[in-house]
């Protein structure tokens, strides 16, 4: 009888332990408390930066982020229509219009890199080392192939500004090609067509191994500075917006933790950072 009793007690204890373990597992694997939509420029996605930052944010705040990477113009339009909770973009003048209309609030500078003009090593227009205005003039005069994103992105907006500064309009020229796509695909087409292209440095470096006969020809001009801002969509104007999560994301992006990641991102793989800290 004693042996039977001893065998039964461990069995009951094991069952209790199993139930406790199941409860613990359920508690530890809880679902995120809330979700948010981030509308962002393609360069932050194509470069791989968000693949590092988003998981840190999600773990820290228990928020699931749905990232929609589009041209900056489209991202800003999503904010204007209340279709995103936070924006990460690089078209300051367009962003300021949304601040004025109160579609976005809490806009903060977060980082920068620069634009560069990339082209074939043969450099048929002879722009290597030129300033931006001279480079665009030479491309126009020689009719060398130029590939534009043509998608109302921050990069496209900058490109059009640079053409206008040179008092040139290439949009009706046969050598001027528009992809209507992101930076990665536009770089690919420029490689195939052996054309020139304006790109952000981060996306170029992230894809450079695929474009080994395309090189940086114009860089360092002050007008090529590429500044990124983060902002939350105004939930007081757009009542379906998750204002709390949007604010958390803005605060995270300018935090010491996120800025430390931005500072180091790209150094191990490319020998230089793809973005630079630039908080206010």
Describe what you observe in this structure:
This protein has 280 residues and is of the alpha/beta class. It folds into 2 domains: 129 residues, D-Maltodextrin-Binding Protein, domain 2 (3-Layer(aba) Sandwich); 111 residues, Periplasmic binding protein-like II (D-Maltodextrin-Binding Protein, domain 2). Strands 1, 2, 3, 4, 7, 8, 9 and 10 form an 8-stranded mixed beta sheet that branches. A two-stranded parallel ribbon has the order 5-6. Helix 7 links the parallel strand 5 and strand 6. It is globular, with a radius of gyration of 25 Å.
Mean pLDDT over the residues: 90
* CATH architecture annotation of the largest domain: 3-Layer(aba) Sandwich
- The SSE string, one letter per element, is HEHHEHEHEHEHEHEHEEHHHE
CATH class annotation of the largest domain:
Alpha Beta
Number of helical runs?
A: 12
Structurally, the number of domains stands at 2
Distance between the termini: 78 Å
Q: What is the name of the CATH topology of the largest domain? A: D-Maltodextrin-Binding Protein, domain 2
Largest sheet: 8 strands, mixed
Integer-rounded radius of gyration: 25 Å
Overall morphology? globular
Structural class: alpha/beta
CATH homology group of the largest domain: Periplasmic binding protein-like II
Approximately how much beta-strand content do the residues carry?
15-25%
Counted beta strands: 10
| Proportion of residues in helical segments | 40-55%
Uncertain segments are 1-13, 20-27
């Amino acid at each position: 009888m004693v042996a039977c009793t001893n065998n039964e007690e461990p069995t009951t204890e094991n069952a209790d332990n199993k139930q406790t373990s199941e409860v613990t597992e359920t508690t530890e694997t809880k679902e995120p408390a809330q979700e948010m939509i981030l509308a962002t420029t393609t360069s932050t996605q194509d470069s791989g930066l968000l693949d590092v930052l988003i998981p840190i944010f999600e773990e820290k705040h228990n928020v699931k982020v749905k990232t929609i990477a589009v041209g900056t113009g489209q991202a800003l339009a999503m904010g204007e229509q209340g279709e995103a909770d936070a924006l990460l973009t690089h078209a300051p003048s367009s962003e300021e219009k949304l601040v004025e209309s109160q579609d976005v609030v809490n806009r903060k500078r977060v980082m920068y890199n620069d634009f560069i003009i990339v082209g074939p090593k043969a450099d048929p227009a002879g722009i290597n080392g030129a300033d931006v205005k001279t480079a665009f003039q030479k491309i126009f005069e020689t009719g060398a192939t130029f590939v534009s994103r043509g998608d109302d992105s921050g990069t496209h907006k900058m490109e059009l500004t640079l053409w206008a500064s040179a008092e040139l309009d290439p949009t009706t020229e046969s050598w001027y090609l528009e992809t209507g796509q992101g930076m990665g695909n536009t770089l690919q087409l420029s490689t195939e067509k052996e054309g020139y292209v304006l790109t952000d440095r981060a996306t170029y470096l992230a894809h450079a191994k695929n474009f080994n006969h395309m090189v940086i020809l114009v860089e360092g001009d002050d007008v090529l500075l590429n500044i990124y801002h983060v902002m939350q969509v105004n939930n007081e104007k757009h009542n379906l917006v998750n204002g709390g999560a949007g604010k958390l994301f803005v605060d995270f992006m300018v935090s010491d933790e996120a800025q430390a990641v931005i500072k180091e991102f790209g150094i191990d793989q490319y020998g230089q950072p793809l973005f630079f800290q630039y908080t206010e």
